[in-house]
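note to self: the first set is below, dont mix up w the second
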Amino acid sequence: MKTYAIGLVPGPVSVPRAFREPYLEDYGSADLEEEFFLLYEENERLLRRFLKTENSVVIQSGEGMCALWGALKSVLAPGDRLLALSNGIFGRGFGEMGKGLGFETRILEAPEGEFLDPEAVRAEARAFGPKVITFVHCETPSGLLNPIAPLGAVAREVDALLCVDYVASAGGADVRTDEWGIDLGLLGSQKVLSLLPDLSMTAVSPRAWAAAEALGYQGYDALLPWREGPAERYLPYTHNWHAMASLNRSLNQILSDGLEASFARHAAVAARCRERLAHMGVAIYPKSEALCSPTVTAALLPDGWSWKALDGALRERGMVVGGSYGPLAGKVFRIGHMGSQADMDLVSKGMDVLAGVLKAR
């Protein structure tokens, strides 16, 4: 399989060698060894710092989407009301998941490339009376970083749980789980953490635990078995020890360098990316610079280019970026500068390649 010297896809990102090394080690059985449970507990403590929360953090085997499915199925039963807030395909996707699971679902859409009006959210929530409100912090297909704090207040007003996907933002942008009133905070390993796509993590508030206990869902992706399981040394399945060892390395590196330093690095690289695009005459998708994510930049395809043609031309020069999904497919391409790819030299080289491709046309 061909590899590329300049990888700027919006996830899974490149995995540093130090984070791959644990996969070459031999470990015991994760559900039997005390050493594993101590590692789990350490990782949970580190994740609390990473996500700025005092809540429990559940660490499960499986790609980040497992956290989304598990959160919904753990606290909602068919017929329960779900309000999905959307300004992109993943926000809308929460609603589609809810419909598929038999929830009474409403999807509230923002104007294209914009954030939802908090007052419109408040009015819809009061009228609908949802049990859960969902939203996405970083909409990677559209490069949007959404304000979350106003939604926590709305959720409390209508006694709803707030479920937020911060898979593509946490660590690269400030995430304040408790301060923002997030009851279910969802994270994946393959973005800013710069790991393989094999772990999903969920910060669970006491209110969310109470809802999960009342429902009693016990599927593979269920949260409830993890409430006491690690402390009681009894897991619902054999965990991925290799991934957990790799997670420990990633979290220790980010936290030892400092979260603020990570935020600053991502912001600086994102600003350079957008500055270079502007000089090339390439427009970005978000309507406001304030909504641009520090982890991914979504740009409109230049005039005269199809996504297939641009992707092919970049690959010929050793660079790979991402296309987009749904309504933005064929209209937007995405540059992933998160985690290990939040590197000024790497992004600068990538922008040099893009500028050369566009100039040569």
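second set (the one i keep forgetting abt)
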Amino acid sequence: MAENKIVAILLPNLGGGGAEKVSINLSKFLIQNGFTVHFILLQKKGEFLRIIPENIKIFCINKIRFRDSIFPLASYFKKNNPQFIFVNMWPLTTIAVLSWVLAGRKGKLFLVEHSILSHSILNVKFYKKLVLKLSIMITYPLANKVIGVSKGVINDISSLGQLHKDKAIYIYNPLTIKNRVYFPKKNPFFWEDSSFKILSIGRFTQEKNHKLLIKAFQILNKTNIGAKLIILGDGSLYRETKEFVKNLGLENHIHMPGFVLDAEPFFIHADLFVLSSNVEGFGNVIVEALSYGVPVVSTDCPSGPSEILDRGKFGTLVPIEDAESLAEAIKLNLYKEFDKEFLINRSLDFSVDKMAQKYLDLLI
């Protein structure tokens, strides 16, 4: 029986990212199935703190540097004795393995990777690449399972860490797919006078490559089709990107309102969703767009978008770093008719009921 069994979910914080959202979805599912859930955070901060269910207990390690968390985490494991432990994202994964070993390897340990780690070390110094590879090769085999959020992620981590095929599995992110009721919601003001409404969501980082999207939109804007673009999210490159929009003279055509906890009004009114990333472990926002019946154009980056869109069956894929191709795909899709139910039904393949059940199967 799951009753009284503790599942500990480790994260750096509860910022508004995909790993955090998925962890909350998973925790709700586990609670419904009789488990007690603990969130272990290095720092108690982030936008999603506002939506954590009250029946989840939060433990804060209160450390900034990952390596300073080894002994506090070991202390938590010894004191609370969780039966199952899910740790998200390197290097917290490696740190947690060390803590778990120090605590006597009690409970089953699952490491969950959300990104293509090999991409993150393409332009770093040799010794940093060596640290990443060695840490994975030494610590990951000790865990009960290593989980990737897509086939591409697990293939990447298996190659980096030379993991045995029985040690690594992939489980797509479990997402809340509502029964979409299209009740009237106020059209975001920026779109009120636009012929076409384009939406993008993602943290402003190098990997998301918003500048590519903006360049593509600049090309599209020259055709005078009356489109306007809204980009939701925050991040380290937010101000730089906003300045880039201003320098191109696109302030009246591109709106960047920052992080929005409830993106539903934007999805409901959007004519098209666009993702311009150079790399994506999965791509939660693509599934969310499909769940509203919104067509998707995405770069064919490693590796989630292609898997979600089934190599283009459920959306349009274009090469990375190709503004002309992205602009052309956006224009074609704005004038194309779509079967909303076809797109919505695809999103159901990634529902919490289907994907979180695979996590539950690991526990029981």
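remember for set 2: The chain has two domains: 6-171, 189-349.
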